[in-house]
Amino acid sequence: MEALQSRIDSFLKTKRIKKYPKKSTTTVATVKWPHPPTFKANPNTLAEAGFYYDPSWDDRDCVACFLCGKELSDWDADDDPFEIHYTKCRTTCSWAVVRCGLSEDLDADGNYVFSIKTRLPSSKAMEKARLGTFEGGDNWWPHDDGASSKKMAQAGFVFTPQAAGDDTVTCLYCNLSLGGWEASDDPL
User: Fold this and answer.
1) What distance in Å separates the CA atoms of residue 153 and residue 146, rounded to the nearest whole number?
2) 3-state secondary structure of 169
C-alpha cells in the first residue's frame, strides 16, 4: 500500500468482511466505500493523506495509514483527512509530518511561509520525517547500498513509489519526482 495508486484502488474494490472471524458461525458481508465523492474524505484525498480502505464489521468506513497503521473511521462530509492525520499522528507518523503537515507551512494564498522552525525543509525534524518514509517496510528502499535513503532525505525527498519495486522519490515542496536511481547517483 506504499504506492499511491494502490491506496486509491483499495477504495474502488469491494471488500469482504466477517462478523466473527474466529468462530465457526461466521457472517460475511461485501462492502464498498460508503461515502459520496462530495465528501472531503474521498478516495483521492484519503489516499494522498496516506490511507487505504480497511473496513471492518463495525466500521464500514475504516481506513488505515500505510506507514503508521493508524485506523480512522466515522468520516463526516467536512472531515479533512490531511488535518486529521496530522493532528492525530504528527509525533508518530512520518507521512503525517511530511505530507499532511504541509498545510501548516502555507499562507492563505498557498505560498510557503514556514512559521514553525521545526517545519523548515532544512530542519533536522523534517529530515528525520522524510527519512521515515524510506523505512516503512522490509526492503522498501532498494538502494541503501548506493543512493542511500539518508542522502535522499537530506536532499529533501520522500519515498513515493508508484508500484512494487519502484524507486520514485518526490520533493513535496516543488513536486519534482525522480526515479531510476543508480548506486553512483547523488540526489543533491
Assistant:
1) 14
2) strand
In this prediction, residue 39 carries a pLDDT of 98
pTM for the predicted model, two decimal places: 0.89
Q: Which three cell numbers, joined as nine digits, stand for 146?
A: 548506493
Cell numbers given for 59: 466500521
Answer yes or no: are the C-beta atoms of 31 and 14 closer than 8 Å. yes
Q: What cell does 26 get?
A: 461466521
Please tell me the predicted confidence (pLDDT) of residue 25: 67
What are residue 29's phi and psi, to 5 degrees? Answer: -135, 155
Q: What is the pLDDT of residues 42-56, one digit of tens each?
A: 999 999 999 999 999
> Measured between alpha carbons, how far is 56 from 29 in angstroms, rounded to an integer?
10
CA nearest to 98, candidates 65, 47, 132: 132
CA 81 to mean position of chain CA atoms: 11
Helix locations, the chain, DSSP H:
4-12, 43-48, 81-89, 94-98, 124-132, 149-154
Residue pair 185/147 in contact (Cβ under 8 Å)? The answer is yes
Question: What is the DSSP secondary-structure string of 29-65?
Answer: EEE---S-TTSSS-HHHHHHTTEEE---SS-TT-EEE
Supply the pLDDT for residue 115.
Answer: 78
